[in-house]
Amino acid sequence: MRATLSSVRIPARDEGVSGRRARSVQAAVAMSFAALLAAGGTGAAEPIHPVPEAIELDRDKVALGRDLFHEPRLSKDGSVSCASCHDLARGGSDGRRVSIGIEGRLGVVNSPTVFNAVFNFKQFWDGRANTVEDQIDGPVQSPIEMGSIWSEVVAKLYEHDSYPRRFDAIYPDGINRKTIKESLGAFVRSLITPNSRFDQWLNGDEEALTAEEKHGYALFKGYGCVSCHQGVNVGGNMFQVFGVLNEYFKKRGNITEADFGRFNVTGNPADRHAFKVPSLRMAALTAPYFHDGSAATLRDAVDVMFEFQLGRKAPDEDKDAIVAFIKTLAGESEEMQP
Ligand code: HEC
Ligand code: HEC
Questions:
Q1: CB under 8 Å to 311, separation ≥6 — which residues?
Q2: For residue 90, what are the domain limits?
Q3: 325 CA to middle of ligand 2, Å?
Q4: Which end of the chain is more exposed for a tag (fewer CB within 10 A), N or C?
Q5: How much is the pTM?
Q6: What is the number of the ligand 2 atom nearest to the C-alpha of 240?
């Protein structure tokens, strides 16, 4: 039996949360809570699932993709690689509020982790790419990221002393945009982090979590965080408005185009300020947080979530326990060794 919900004390809802949006989110939260209670909180019914131990991939493509991931020749002036903004030794992100591309150009959003990106239903904060392969045209060609054009990248890789041979050994058509994307994609797909302490617990090891961490998970479910952050990635499977119960952007000010999120892709007014709910798997390592990099610490991010996604207050010890739980979600990958 897992930590049961009956042991969790959830304070009464704050007054003053109103509006249709608020009611629909609260209904969703209440529903998931009821479903959890009905399920009795046992392993199979947990709303979070373990990261698989392995994904079947072509080893040679992954190895080639690994080198391309660290290859600055993909950028116009040879100064930036994928790893510049997705540093695998620091959780697959760059630790900056927004990324820095060629010639020191500032990006418009925070760099998400590449670890476990394969489990996200869409790629990018606004979900404008469907797969990790599709997504690659973005950074390579963006003038504020790598600033390249594909024909130049292909030509530069052909001048290299080993890439032509390595591509030829795998792909009959050698080096081109498609084969570069396929091998880079294979590497990104390999970046999964199984065996987190939380997954060990999900798989039945009662000792894998401390009492506080288990309590944090029960609170994460009880408060309704899990209505948005769920599944293998503890996120990454839906879009939600940022500021669903309080107007985040009004309070923050200086609204940019990137702040419109999913609306920029669909033009649908209901998607204004909607973002892909990010995975919390590597959140222990990837400060700062949110698409705008506005939260410096995990604890700050949790405060914001309570205020703007749940419209609730919570005691400090509950928030601390939730942070302790989130820190158990990060698993292992050989690629994280510097
Ligand atoms: C200049 C910094 C920078 C470089 C270089 C860069 N990225 Fe990114 N990456 C970002 C940012 C910022 C985002 C989020 C962009 C957005 O959502 O609009 C992102 C998003 C992603 C995502 C989507 C993750 C998710 O959960 O949505 C993947 C996968 C990814 N990058 C892989 C790569 C690969 C592979 C390369 C090399 C070809 C690369 N990136 C190069 C900064 C960078
Ligand atoms: C209504 C849906 C929803 C609920 C409920 C929700 N979140 Fe979120 N969460 C989001 C969205 C959307 C974002 C991304 C916002 C952005 O950056 O634009 C996010 C971002 C985060 C982040 C930052 C992750 C990163 O890498 O930047 C953390 C941490 C987080 N949520 C934790 C929580 C916790 C803890 C709770 C419960 C107290 C919670 N969330 C409840 C939708 C939700």
A1: 14, 17, 22, 245, 246
A2: 59-190
A3: 14
A4: C
A5: 0.91
A6: 12
